[in-house]
Amino acid sequence: MKLKYKSLLVILLCSVIAKLYSQEIKEETLTKKEAISQMLENNFGILLANNQVAVAKNNKSILNADYLPSITGNAGGSFDQNSSTTDFNGALDNQGNPRPDIEINDAETRRYNASINLDYTLFDGLGRYYNYKQLKEEYNLSQLQARETIENTMLQLFSVYYEVARLTENETVLQEALAITKQREKRAEYQFEYGQANKLAVLNAQVDVTTDSINILNVQQQLRNAKRDLNVVLNRELAKQANVDTTVVFVNELVVDSYLETAATNNVRLQQVDQDIKISEYQIKGAKSFILPTIGLTGSYGWNTSDNPASAFFPGTTQNSNNLNVGLNLRWNLFDGGRSIVALKNVKIANESQQLIKKQLQQQVLRDIENAKDSYKNALTIYRLQEQNVLTSKDNFNRSEERFKLGQITSVEYRQAQLNYLNAQTTKNAAKYTAKLAELAVLQLSGQLLNVEF
Predict the structure, then answer these.
(1) φ, ψ for residue 90 (rounded to 5)?
(2) DSSP3 helix / strand / coil % (the chain, rounded to 5)
(3) Residue 48 pLDDT grade (very low, low, confident, very high; cuts 50, 70, 90)
(4) How far apart are alpha carbons 334 and 13 in whole angstroms?
(5) Is it true that domain 2-66+126-293+335-451 has CATH number 1.20.1600.10?
(6) Contacts of 356 (CB under 8 A, 6+ apart)
(7) Element (H, E) at 227
């Protein structure tokens, strides 16, 4: 009797906890498109990548390419105040009288000036031209880097999204299994009451109810954790517990094969190394510009005014002046100690290194594509086999259920058939999402991940 009450208490406790968790406030289903949209808007990694693109866009502007002249304005003013006394030391004026001292107090001098100066490089050996080209290629490279960040984040998103979907389906499967087990428990209790079964059948059913209840609690905990992981990727509040879309649609295999044929052209990593090579080529051309002369134009326009007070011998004056200056200069660095030669050699070596990196990366990407393609096809095959296995396990379970009701098999055999069906369902769920993630990996390597519908 004590064992019976303890078993009933455990079953009741597990059922109450499972019911409480199942009654959590549910939000509307978060579709795949909505998840992608929120990821693009909120994910920290993508926001940082977009900022890098914005910086590169500013850098490639004509305002940053030294093509425009430099114009500066200068202005100034000064103020002096002086007091002076002039003593003639007994000198006589025209009438023979001693000349009086001349005293000037608070004599003010004011000076003002303003000028505009222009400096413009007419020719610099094509250095700024190739620098401008290089900045444009760096902008293109930043876009490819942002695209790679988005692709990697999207794979991370769907890895978590499909984990939530898998656990959601597993929870449904376990809930159905618990309902079946409870029916078996009730049947065993009725049979025991009417003397058609012994107490062992009831206890076995109660143990299985407890086991199924615990399995539900565990999967619900895993589901809540997975939803928090999803919220981190989407940069949402961790407390949100959104449902997800559990439907999976595979891209036609012929379409995937066509994507793989152009993978070497569309793969984002290979495109990035191509951009690095272009940048290094412009660096070589820019380094060659050091051996050519630089021709510059200078010009200035200035205005000056000065108010001078009267002195002992001269009256006060006001002076105004304007000046215009235009000049042309040539600068040719005939020898700079060899620094230009060393710089040119280094950028050529850098270009050779980029060519080697490209060949190495091509080999790695082709290997990754072959591995991903094999994994994808293998995962699809396993998924289809698991679908068939679910049908077989379901048929076996249905037959076992009929035989159990007729008393032709024991509860242990019936439970085993139920577990086989349960395992087949959960394994099929895992195989489905594994196959989809394998497909996404192939799409990323082929450069088409952002071009397919979800």
Answers:
(1) 85, 5
(2) 65, 15, 20
(3) very high
(4) 91
(5) yes
(6) none
(7) helix 199-234
